[in-house]
UniProtKB/TrEMBL annotation:
The keyword Flavoprotein applies. It comes from the Bacteria. One of its GO terms (molecular function) is FAD binding. This is p-hydroxybenzoate hydroxylase. Keywords: FAD, Flavoprotein. GO terms for biological process: benzoate catabolic process. Residues 2-342 form the FAD-binding domain. Transmembrane segments: none annotated.
Length: 389
């Protein structure tokens, strides 16, 4: 088989890139290790920046998003029960949309199926070759047979544990990483959200987040130690812990219920440099990881592939490699800006085992500064809604 761009991974990065290339008349195949149902079963992000919403609209996959997505003008912060609302709309004239990653993925998969674009699910043992030359190749196994795809470019959209970044020679890549000594235990529940907007809560017992997927489905998280096991968290234990970390009035109005999904995600900050290696490009979680506190991972993935699609369109349309040559620098600029913001939100809101009294006083001072300074609030608003200089 031959294609112009082989896309490894059918997460948001791979599927968005596939759609953008399709619109540009560039042939692409998506190769995914898991089944489509497995990909759709992963509960992940919930917040879209305006620029992501705009891109999904531009790609014509907005029908359900426009009907079901919920615009939020701001978020609430809570610090040991003291509340502070950050009103993005009023501060900087922008807002965000609550629409689950699962839904974005489903919309993109449906659009791909409708247009007949080629996707190969349940492809095992994917290997990539010759991306330092002009004719890269991919091999994989499916239904007991081995297959090969020849292509012009490989888009590594295969997440943090994928094969793309792992195939780059060690000396060609620099990795920057911070692993946090905690994770997020998340619960999905069919109950109306406790508040109209998201609540990010710092508490001595640990961070908590009240989020949502719709007016009748809520998503909640609590910070847990890195060694915690999900089976040790009954629903009752989860709800008790969440309530203990919220402002008492809010805790009182929280509607709990049987969890329909419960999982623990570790928190890390991670950046690979560069993100282009000859004819291989890394995008999304394959290139960088942020802790979920800033709601950025999905939006970064969409940003990267928009840059890549523009670069590839220039290559095929105008025979110019200028976009390809600057892809890495453009992605890394956005990456580090967003890494900083996600790190900052994380260190403000979480309880650090080694933070000590000094660390706790600094966190309180940071929160009080936000409460007192419109400029500090604008900075948060600008970054949370997506800063594009
Ligand atoms: P994905 O979604 O991991 O998709 C990669 C795909 O590649 C496949 N794959 C392979 N395929 C073939 N061969 C191989 N060798 C392969 N190895 C892997 C995988 O099966 C998978 O289908 O990466 P992508 O597309 O870069 O998308 C990134 C986002 O998924 C991620 O950044 C976000 O979910 C992060 N995130 C959030 N981002 C936001 O923008 N807003 C949020 O509110 C938000 N909340 C979150 C989050 C992530 C979380 N977790 C679980 C880490 C909340 C949580 C709890
Ligand atoms: C979510 O709804 O899953 C969510 C929302 C905001 C975040 C992280 C996760 O910062």
């Amino acid at each position: 088989m031959r294609t112009q761009v082989a896309i490894i991974g059918a997460g948001p990065a791979g599927l968005t890139l596939g759609r953008l290339l399709e619109a540009a008349g560039i042939d692409a195949v998506v190769i995914e290790r898991r089944s489509a149902d497995y990909v759709l079963g992963r509960i992940r992000a919930g917040v879209l920046e305006q620029s992501s919403v705009d891109l999904l609209r531009q790609m014509g996959v907005n029908q359900r998003m426009d009907a079901e997505g919920i615009f939020h003008d701001g978020v609430e912060l809570s610090f040991n029960g003291d509340m502070l609302r950050i009103n993005f709309q009023e501060l900087i004239g922008r807002r965000v949309m609550v629409y689950g990653q699962t839904e974005v993925t489903r919309d993109l998969m449906d659009a791909r199926a409708a247009s007949g674009a080629k996707s190969i699910y349940e492809a095992s043992n994917v290997q990539i070759y010759d991306f330092d030359g002009e004719t890269p190749r991919i091999t994989f196994d499916k239904d007991g047979q081995s297959h090969q795809i020849e292509c012009d470019f490989i888009a590594g959209c295969d997440g943090f544990h994928g094969v793309s970044r792992a195939s780059v020679p060690e000396k060609a890549i620099s990795l920057f990483e911070r692993i946090y000594p905690f994770g997020w235990l998340g619960v999905l529940v069919d109950q109306p959200p406790v508040a109209e907007e998201l609540i990010y809560a710092h508490h001595e017992r640990g961070f908590a987040l009240c989020s949502m997927r719709s007016h009748s489905r809520s998503r909640y998280y609590v910070q847990v130690g890195s060694s915690e096991k999900v089976q040790d968290w009954s629903d009752d234990r989860f709800w008790d812990e969440l309530r203990a970390r919220l402002n008492p009035e809010i805790a009182e109005s929280l509607k709990s219920g049987p969890s329909i999904e419960k999982s623990i995600a570790p928190l890390r900050s991670f950046v690979a440099e560069p993100v282009r290696f000859g004819r291989l490009f890394l995008t999304g979680d394959a290139a960088h990881i942020v802790p979920p506190t800033g709601a950025k991972g999905l939006n970064m993935a969409i940003h990267d592939v928009a840059e890549l699609a523009t670069a590839l369109s220039e290559f095929y349309g105008e025979r110019s490699s200028a976009g390809i040559d600057t892809y890495s620098a453009r992605v890394l600029e956005n990456t580090w800006r967003t890494e900083r913001f996600s790190w900052w939100m994380t260190q403000l809101l979480h309880t650090f085992p080694d933070g000590g009294d000094f660390g706790r006083r600094i966190q309180r001072a940071d929160f009080d500064y936000l409460g007192a300074s419109r400029i500090a609030q604008q900075s948060l608003a600008e970054n949370y809604t997506g800063f594009r200089p």
